[in-house]
Known about the structure:
Layout: H1 2-43, H2 49-63, H3 67-77, H4 89-115, H5 118-126, H6 131-161, H7 173-183, H8 186-225
Helix pairs in contact: 1-4, 1-7, 2-4, 3-4, 4-6, 6-8, 7-8
Amino acid sequence: MSNYLDAFGRALPQLLDGLLITVVLTLGGALLAFVIAIVLGLVARFDNIILRGAARIIIELFRGTSLVVQLFFFFFVLPLPPFYMQLNPIFVGVLALGLNYGAYAAEVVRGSINSVAPGQWEATTALSMTRTQRMWRIIFPQAWALMIPSLNNLLIQLLKGTAVVYTITIVDLTAVFNKLRVETSVYFAYGIALVIYFILAYLLMLFMNGLEKRAVHKLGRQAVSA
Length: 226
């Protein structure tokens, strides 16, 4: 066991670097996924068939293809003719994670908006609100409270999805633990990896639970004031 601890101590700087990269990939991918989800989720409800169709194509394309294939395409295919686009590996990781999980989250956004009670929509029409006012002042705050639990699950999945980004030369937590396994054992290296990923996932869950409570509390205060 002392040999394992010595190996762990030697690998600690790399582990911290890998942890930082994993956090960057998670936060960057989550931010991009959230923006994509809001845009595609709203556009997928448009009356314009062209815009709605384009949103559906993007959503189904990135939901229906593997995250690993998307990573390989952005990193290995784009530098080739006729694209000639050599992208930074971290940027590729954030881009692939954001597009992949953003496509899933777009369906959460669309479904949550559709789940808002019809009476709320009718009330905004009676108040002669514009489409923008109706969405951002009345409908979206209620849909936001509904979508947070599902977004929480996707955020945890995104964190775990960062583990495959090491396949494009990024030295994240998983890559470091793969190296540590050689110097120690499978049980030791991946046992520590499980604990660290669990802690990260638990922290994200606490954050999202806090957002959910705040959103529900805010809706309650608005209902009382109304």
